[in-house]
Amino acid sequence: MAKAIEELFIEEYQYELEEGTNLDPKWLYIYRSHGIAGLVIRWIEDGFTPSPYYMSEQIIKLMLTTTEVFRVKN
After folding, report:
1. Which of 9, 21, 35, 55 is deepest in the core (most CB within 10 A)?
2. Backbone phi, then psi, for 67, in 5-degree steps?
3. How is the chain split into domains, by residue range?
4. Which positions ≥6 away from 32 have C-beta within 8 Å?
């Protein structure tokens, strides 16, 4: 499932990374496609709740979310 999502991303979408970002976009596609596949699997396991519309909104929000800070908890 993740591979199909990754291929869809590559064919249909383009990420714009901040200038100077030292990240191969290939890994971003892989990372996000596996995340979405995991989310869909969990949604199936939870009996398709919440609604498909809600889940599609959440996936779009996740795709647009960035994290400015990442810390290791003590």
Report:
1. 9
2. -115, 115
3. 2-11+22-64
4. 9, 63
